[in-house]
Amino acid sequence: MLISLNWLSDYVDCPLSPERIAEGLTMGGLEVESISLRHPQLKNVVTARIEAVEPHPNADRLKICVVSAGGLELRRIVCGAPNARAGAVAPLALPGAELSGGIVREAKVRGELSKGMLCSQKELGLSEDHSGIWILPEDTPAGIPLDEALGIKDVLMDVGITPNRGDCLSLIGIAREVAALYKTLARYPASTVEETGPPVDSLTSVTIDDPKGCPRYAARVIRGVKIGPSPDWLKNRVEAVGVRSINNIVDVTNFVMMELGQPLHAFDFNRLRERRIVVRKAEAGERFTTLDSVERELGEGTVLICDGVGSVAIGGVMGGLNSEIGPDTCDVLIESAYFDPVSIRRTSRRLGLKTEASYRFERGTDPGGVLRALDRAAALMLEVAGGEIASGKIDVCPNPLKVSEVDLRVDRVNRFLGISLSGDEMKEILERIEMRVEKCEPDRLRVTVPGFRSDITREVDLAEELARLSGYDGIPVTSPLAAVHAADSDPHQTVRAELKNLLVGAGFFEVINYSFISSGALRMLRYSEGDPAVPAPIRVRNPLSDEQAVMRTSLLPGLLNNARYNIDHRNENFKIFELSKVFLPRKEGLQAEEVHHLAGIMAGKRVELALYSDGDVDYAETKGVVEHICAFLRIDDLRFRADSLPPWLDPSASASVYVKGERVGELGRVHSEVQEAFDLKRTVFAFRLDFDSLFALRGPVPVYRGLPKFPPVPRDLALIADESLPVEQPLDFIRSLKEPLLESIEIFDIFKSEQIGEGKKSIGYRLTYRASDRSLTDEEVNTVHSQLIGKVTARFAVSLR
Amino acid sequence: MKKAVENLLETACRVLSGLQDDPKAFELARVRFLGRKGELAQLFKELGKVSEQERREAGRLLNEAKSRLETLFSEALDKRRELDAARRESIDVSVPGRRPPAGRLHPITQTATEICRIFNWLGFETVEGPEIELDYYNFEALNIPKDHPARDMQDTFYISEDVVLRTHTSPIQVRTMEKRKPPVRVIAPGRTYRRDSDVTHTPMFHQVEGLMVGKGISFGDLKGILTTFVHQMFGPSVGLRFRPSFFPFTEPSAEVDIECVMCRGKGCRVCKGTGWLEILGSGMVDPEVYKYVGYDPEEITGFAFGMGIERIAMLKFGIDDLRLFFENDLRFLKQF
Ligand SMILES: [Zn+2]
Asked: Measured between CA atoms, how close is A630 to chain B, in angstroms?
């Protein structure tokens, strides 16, 4: 909320600088977000008296004004205004002044030096008048800042008001805070109402049919007003805090709302049919045209202000076109009411209509402050628009106002805050914010809360007031007394962190992508609509864009976008991964199934340093990463098969990953169509794993086995086989024979050559034999080895090389 | 005898100094003088022929000669080794190393890890919760009823009437207290979502939530724990202040500002001239929240706090554009 310090000084004496006031408010819980001059463009603009006017030697239309702007020095100013004449006082923008048209500089105009610029109102941004320079009253002293001369020098503070502090949405509210912080008292504006008209009861009546939505409605009538522009002081006040001046009556309602925080409404009394007010609930489907000329459909239960025939305002939100104050308005009914905050908020949200009034009502206004505002408005209208105020006022308040009393236990509050104030000290602090405090027991205060503090209903609310008014800084810093206990750690979190570090150690950079993806992303991955393999993603009801329309079911779209971004920015060699949640729809329950996936993309050179570069990443490199991850998780039964591949992988260079027979992911070359869909200028390889499955399948803590005492005996086996034979098959077969002396077997060589023949390949296996209880002899090993060879050659269509 | 010994030593010296750095010649020379059948051994054999009176003296001479020779040869050997080493080092040491590959964790992960580690040391256990959350946990049980102005503080993404993308990590407070009896001390990092996208907001961001409740925990304790955290995270000399604020689920509430790390509190663009940077929100858990989880507010007190990880990471690393975190540009990621 914008606060004018000039205006604020009407209600509280605070001789401190704006910065100190701002600091005090901020540390008291009202954060001052900015401090600015009301008219920053008037900095460096002063009043100047034109002492003489001379013709410009080089231009007929220009003149040279010799002006005095304080001091003895006279300045020569080039000026083209027809009304510049000797003896006049006018605003002078000195070099350095920042006007809306630009910064004023000392400059030569047609060969004559001009030390500043005499200005029109328009040039100063104060009105549209550009007929000539602004001639100020004759008695205006020369050489003083213009804003001072005009009495519009003011500082504005933008105060952030938290939703609980509706009482601070007014000048008086801020003044109360300033007063409390500096231990003084706020001054409420006096409002003596000169009632000269007939009794108000004889003119109108108010009926409340919805006492829950509108617990209090007060009104006054003022007749014979003259609608016109507001006087300068009023216009200046409302405009200072950002409210457009409309006419004297409307400006008064806005002025009082800003002053006291009570929204008011002024009706053209003669346009109220039967000249009376009825407050009722709207019926479903009822329509109404608000002041802004929009016809709106009202929800059931909306508080409606009606006259004897139909609706004239949406209570607490906006008035209607049909009863608006116009240039011909002569009699006015002033409404000052209290509306239920929840009801106002519902209406405002349903209609998408937020007004200064609804903003205040939904944060809770003071039902006890209704009459003060009403009287203030009536008195001000009389002052600025004339007329006569009807005697008395209407005040319909079906249920008595509740007085809020809260008990405070001194000791408990002290312990809760970690302070040690006496009951008397607490009493003094609370009285500063207009609470009535009685000491009822030695340890207990009974606090009567003023109506404007509807946020205070409990002891803890009073504790907060005590803490903030005595200053958070003053509360001693303590260490909690708590039993020593080691924070448990969740293995899922630990393994995730370890895996991330493992991948970082393998050259991968971690990326973080948004959890939402575009609704077309799965199509870009070549999934067809309704593919049973992929669930339809959860939709966000109100996404910011179609790019963020659904919750991701795959990490791939994000990663592929990262790949494109990096390739396009010439980061062509990279390995990136994300280990994070995807969101799968659940058949039962409201929420999603949130599971962790791990996926990565690799592109470009295997080794980034050109000196040691040995080719591009490929299938084997990608598979190696998956094997590395599984080895780290102590998963041994790991299989790769070229079946059940998702559509985004190229089937000629991809595999599914199986652990203990369970499919846990896939890896390989990204399909060329997907590459195209994501606009990737290079081939990339990718892997994706169900982290939660891997986590569940991870191996146990290993049990130590004794180190071998006897030497290993290696033997090689070279087979020539059809190219189509997976190299793993003979290896698996040999393993399946469970030869007790065979310790391990690995592939050490795969090659093709003319010698071997078309369509054939040579596979070299190294078998390592060892016994745990003796050194093996060559004969022993040879026998076993040749038996194995025999079995392999019998099982597969292979020959020995 | 004495003469023979002197001759032997002299010859050995000459031979050694005349040796080129040929390891074979050195070995031959060693065998010639010190070998089992070498010249010194020969002289020892001749000891038998020496008269008994002289034998003692001759023995002494021979032993001396032996140790002298051994010294000579070992010194020569050391010298040769030095030479060898010098020769080996003649490779071009400026050739780039063949580095193992090394990536980096995302700066948000690094920052979250550091924050959690500090609180883990203070006995807070790291817990997590769902990101697609019930309105009940995200708002209702945190004392933010429907039709309350406090809902304006957070623009919400909705999945359905009752399901939202969590707007803060605070629902984990409620979920944790529902499951556990006091005392509770937890820290909860995670992704959060608000319907807001501009230079200073991304629709997804990260928060860390903390909660400590039990018997007799005071606002002073809140100040104590958070002061410890700030000093661990930003250094022991960084000033901080607690400023009254409002959150529907804490009372009293406090924003924690630290002295601007860019200008050391003098006022700059980053701190908008105030010298202070807001880094976390906190407060004593509101009694209303205890009612939702079945704790007795007369018995139990405690505090909660929450902070934006991006914000902390930006301050820690001097990052000036929030959007960089989600572009995942390798040139950015490699810097951390
Ligand atoms: Zn700064």
From this structure: 19
